[in-house]
Amino acid sequence: MSKHYDEIFKKDAVALLESGRPLKKLAAELGVCSVTLRDWRDRFSKSPQSKPAPQSLEAAQMEVRQLRQEVADLRRQREILKKTLGILAEPPRSDANA
Fold first, then answer.
1. Which residues contact 48 (CB under 8 A, 6 or more apart)?
2. ∠ CA 46-36-13 to the nearest 5 degrees?
3. Distance (Å, rounded) from C-alpha 18 to C-alpha 43?
4. What is the pLDDT of residues 28-82, one digit of tens each?
5. In Å, how far are 13, 16, 23, 46, 87 from 41, measured between CA atoms?
6. Residue closest to 5 by CA, chosen among 42, 25, 34, 31
7. CB contact at 8 A, 45 and 14
8. 29-35 contacts: CB < 8 A, separation 24 or more?
9. Engineering a disulfide at 5: which of 9, 29, 30, 92 sits with its beta carbon 3.0 to 4.6 angstroms away?
10. What predicted TM-score, i.e. pTM, was given to this entire model?
11. Rounded CA gap, 27 and 7, in Å?
């Protein structure tokens, strides 16, 4: 029977691993296989070593385009969150006073 872990659990496990915890010990504590935890680390790691450097100019240019698109997407998401927080922070309006 295969266990399924949600993405939040996986990312939290990777964060614990990146904090310096030994991989095999952490895997045992979390009840997952060390190979599985290593796969999650490779997929979700924030460290720069997680991706190899591009091997060609074309690959590097494609990576730059992808990263620029990701930055633009993250900026849009941040602006949406700022607007949402501003709306939620406003006191509720009462239509009875109008």
1. none
2. 45
3. 13
4. 999 999 999 999 999 888 765 546 667 889 988 999 999 999 999 999 999 998 8
5. 8, 10, 10, 9, 37
6. 31
7. yes
8. 32/3, 32/5
9. 9
10. 0.45
11. 16
